[in-house]
Each structure stands twice: as structure tokens, then as C-alpha cells.
Specification:
By secondary structure, the protein is of the alpha/beta class. The strands form four sheets. The protein has a six-stranded parallel sheet with strand order 3-2-1-4-5-6, with helices on both faces. A three-stranded antiparallel sheet has the order 7-10-11. The longest helix has 19 residues. The chain is globular, with a radius of gyration of 20 Å. The N and C termini lie far apart (44 Å). The structure holds nicotinamide-adenine-dinucleotide. Nicotinamide-adenine-dinucleotide (NAD) binds next to helix 2 and helix 5. Nicotinamide-adenine-dinucleotide binds next to helix 2 and helix 5.
Length: 335
């Protein structure tokens, strides 16, 4: 029975190697985002084991077969089609299962559908004694991060939402394009909801430590409100534009997830804009949203206290309220 499919079966693939020191990453949901994450992770060589779990086991098995054929050409990695028992011993379980947005739908519109799936994934994994970290990408990611924290009972530090890592990358890309400077030299963050109420922190955005206004004065450039609005609206609405054209977004989020996994596995103390439970932050409590956050092997180390201006503080409060109102619609709100 267990040898029916030697390429994808857990038991037979476990027999392939018992030697590798393990960083097991379990990916629950092997659709666009999950399979792209698995591929990016394989190429990165960061994890020695990748487990895919999906209710559509035929599709997931196809992904596993395809990925395994890339192993001889890339990095030695054990990849198999698994179950929640395999998730329980993973270092990180990544949640990429669930419905994605159809054209015109907001991320918050996905809540009811993806709550049910999240419940199944968390209870299935916790039942087998999971003690690792959850990394959530499914939308609405901030609410589902809150939900996973509640359902799993894990410490806040071990439940991380991909949050605005993607929006921050899009924002840095937009600023980089405008100024003609490599995005790696642009430091700027999107905070709050991964969604329509997200907040651009213009006041702290800088190129090589120079705030954008100072950079413009020093180099005789103009950076007016309409240019800012244009860069931000292209950032905030990027998913709508991409989904309209190709039905889903996956390369950039998969790359962002790999970056978070790298910060965890390599114990890097990296600052990334991810979503996690917020308490006592400028008067904001009991909500998951994104802030620049130090991440290492323990998960969330600390959310950075930004010196926001009045307008940004007010916008962050509005974003937190949007998320609190959405969470209040869930059955977990009163627990
Ligand atoms: P998809 O439809 O391509 O894949 C979803 C997969 O989940 C499918 O293979 C499906 O069979 C599986 N699934 C459904 N219920 C399941 C369950 N109970 N257990 C295991 N697997 C289950 O969708 P996608 O494009 O990969 O998007 C996945 C999620 O990621 C969506 O919620 C989407 O909105 C979100 N997303 C988030 C970001 C971000 O920045 N956080 C970016 C892009 C997409």
C-alpha cells in the first residue's frame, strides 16, 4: 500500500533519507501561492524537507512530482505529499489554503470561507502536538492570523501573518522606479491592514537615510502630492490590477514568504513588515496588523515603535478599527 506511489508517498520518501538535518516546512494549500512557495523554497535550499498538504490531493501530488523532478537540478530536498501529522513536527506550517479574490472582491470578503478552512488546518495540526510556528498567507491575512492565534493557543511570538511584506515590497518598488534608485536602497514601510485600509509611512521613507523631502531638496527634484498618491494607490491596488489580468498573484508573495522563513531559520533578527498580535501600540490593542517587526528563530521578537506623524497615527487607528470590526463578525470574537 505504502509503495503505490514512490514519488509522492510519505513513507517511501522518508526512506530516501533519514540523514539530512531537518528544517521541515509544511505548506497547507498547494494552489498558486503554496506551489510557488514550494518551488521558491526548493531553489533557496533553506529547508531540507517540504511537505505539501491539500484537500485536492491529486493536484498536490502533481505538484510534488513536478517539484521532485527539479531536485536533481537544484538542492537536495525531501518533498512529499503529507498530512497534518507531518505538519506537527514541522518547524513552520505555512497556511496558503483557501479561496482567493475574484475580480472586484476585497480580501475581507473572503473571511467566512477561509475561517472554516483555517479552523480545519489549525485543529488538524494542533491535534498532533505542533509546537512550531504558524506563518499565515491566506486572506484576509490579518484576521486569519488573529484566528490562528486564538485557535492554536500558541504564544503570540509563534503566529506570524505575511501581512504587508508584499505591500512594502510594492511600495519600495514604486519609490525606486520614481527616483531611479535600487529598491534595496529605499527604506519605506506599509503598515496596518494588508488591504484597503493600509497605511504608507511617507514621513519615515528614505533613500540611504535621507528622508524623501531632503533627498529631493538636495538633488533639485519635485515630489508632489499627486506623485505620492499615484505611487501609493498603485501599491494598495496592485492585487486588483494583477488579478484582473492573470487571475491570481503568487510570485511576489511566495518570495516574501521565503524571506520570512529565511529570517526565522537563520535566526537573523531581520526587520520585516509582518502581521502579529498588537497590544499597547499608540493605544491600539487586541488586533493583528503589520508593523516593522524583528523576526528570528523564536518568531516575533518585537514590533518597532515608529515615530509616526499625526496623519499616519490616525490612519493606523482607522486600519486597526477596520480589522477589529471584521474580527468582531467572527464566532471567535467573544472567546
Ligand atoms: P488557489 O485557489 O490557487 O489555492 C488554494 C488551495 O487551497 C487549493 O489547492 C485548494 O485545494 C486548497 N484548499 C482548500 N481548502 C483546503 C483545506 N481545508 N485544507 C488544505 N487545502 C485546502 O489560491 P491561491 O491563489 O494559492 O491563494 C491562496 C490564498 O492566499 C488566498 O486566500 C489568497 O487570497 C491568499 N493570498 C495572499 C497573499 C498575501 O499577500 N498574503 C497574496 C496572494 C494570495
Amino acid at each position: 500500500m505504502e509503495m503505490l506511489n514512490t514519488e509522492t508517498n510519505r513513507t517511501s520518501s522518508e526512506q530516501l533519507s533519514s540523514a539530512a538535518p531537518t528544517a521541515r516546512i509544511a505548506i497547507v494549500g498547494s494552489g498558486h501561492v503554496g506551489s510557488t512557495l514550494a518551488y521558491a523554497l526548493l531553489l533557496s535550499g533553506l529547508s531540507s524537507e517540504i511537505v505539501l498538504v491539500d484537500t485536492d490531493s491529486a493536484r498536490a501530488e502533481g505538484e510534488v512530482m513536478d517539484l521532485n523532478h527539479a531536485v536533481p537540478l537544484s538542492r537536495e530536498t525531501r518533498i512529499w505529499l503529507g498530512d497534518y501529522e507531518d505538519c506537527a513536527s514541522a518547524t513552520i506550517v505555512v497556511l496558503t489554503a483557501g479561496a482567493n479574490q475574484h475580480p472586484g472582491e476585497t480580501r475581507l470578503d473572503l473571511l467566512q470561507r477561509n475561517m472554516v478552512i483555517t479552523d480545519q488546518v489549525v485543529s488538524g495540526t494542533m491535534k498532533h502536538g505542533f509546537k512550531g510556528l504558524f506563518l499565515i498567507a491566506s486572506n484576509p491575512v490579518d484576521i486569519l492570523t488573529h484566528v490562528v492565534g486564538k485557535l492554536s493557543g500558541l504564544p503570540t511570538s509563534r503566529v506570524i501573518g505575511s501581512g504587508t511584506i508584499l505591500d512594502t515590497a510594492r511600495f519600495r518598488h514604486g519609490i525606486s522606479r520614481h527616483f531611479g534608485v535600487d529598491a534595496h536602497s529605499v527604506h519605506a514601510y506599509i503598515i496596518g491592514e494588508h488591504g484597503d485600509s493600509e497605511v504608507p509611512v511617507w514621513s519615515l521613507a528614505n533613500i540611504a537615510g535621507m528622508r524623501l523631502d531632503d533627498y529631493c531638496i538636495a538633488h533639485g527634484l519635485v515630489f508632489d502630492d499627486s506623485t505620492r498618491d499615484d505611487i501609493f494607490s498603485k501599491t494598495r491596488d496592485a492585487a486588483y490590477h494583477i488579478i484582473h489580468r492573470k487571475g491570481a498573484t503568487f510570485y511576489a508573495i511566495a518570495t516574501g514568504l521565503v524571506r520570512i522563513i529565511e529570517a526565522i531559520l537563520r535566526d537573523q533578527n531581520t526587520v520585516l513588515s509582518v502581521s502579529s498580535r498588537v497590544e499597547n501600540y499608540l493605544g491600539i490593542n487586541n488586533v493583528c496588523l503589520s508593523l516593522p517587526t524583528i523576526i528570528n528563530r523564536q518568531g516575533i521578537v518585537r514590533q518597532l515603535h515608529l515615530n509616526l506623524n499625526e496623519q499616519e497615527t490616525a490612519a493606523l487607528h482607522r486600519s486597526a478599527e477596520t480589522l477589529q470590526n471584521a474580527f468582531a463578525q467572527t464566532s471567535l470574537a467573544k472567546q
